[in-house]
Amino acid sequence: MATAEGQRLQKLSSLARAALKTVAAKGEPVTYRDLAATLELSPPNTIRQVTDALEYLMHEDAAESVPFIAALVIGRARNGLPGPGFFETARALGRFDGNLENDAAAYHAKVLAEAVRYWGTNGA
């Protein structure tokens, strides 16, 4: 990633991973808004900045064959689930083959538990 935008995304993703390792150690997910606040992001598009960083992390995690640390981030109004982009990226990376209406909650519960177990102990 040679562009300034690419470098910014890489740096933001690194900061997000560090923050999410702390979240994993606590064993409870965090909202997109809370992660944006932790990362001290400023408008415009703070949630979009978070989701871009999380998708970047998902690609890294898939390449390393480790649980998605992004599973630790949920939407405040989504009944404890991440946004649709999480599932779309997981599908694109070959890790989710269900549908959003029927399979998202079970899939997320599984990957959230994996993320807490892996990143809560190995990530610190």
SSE diagram, text form:
Blueprint: H1 4-26, E1 30-31, H2 32-38, H3 46-64, E2 73-74, H4 84-92, H5 100-122
Parallel strand pairs: 1-2
Helix pairs in contact: 1-3, 1-5, 2-3, 3-4
The overall pLDDT average reads 93
For the sheet with most strands, the description reads:
2 strands, parallel
The fraction of residues in strands falls at under 5%
In DSSP terms (H or I, runs of 4 or more residues), the helix count works out at 5
Shape: globular
How does the helix and strand content classify structurally? mainly alpha
Helix content: 55-70%
Round the Cα radius of gyration to an integer and report it.
14 Å
Query: Which segments are poorly predicted (pLDDT under 50) over 5 or more consecutive residues?
Result: none
The overall strand count is 2
Adjacency order of strands in the biggest sheet: 1-2
How many domain modules?
1
Question: Can you give a write-up of this model?
Answer:
The protein is mostly helical. It has one domain. The chain has five helices and two strands.
Give a quick summary of the entry.
The chain has 124 residues and is mainly alpha-helical.
Keywords:
124 residues, mainly alpha, 65% helix
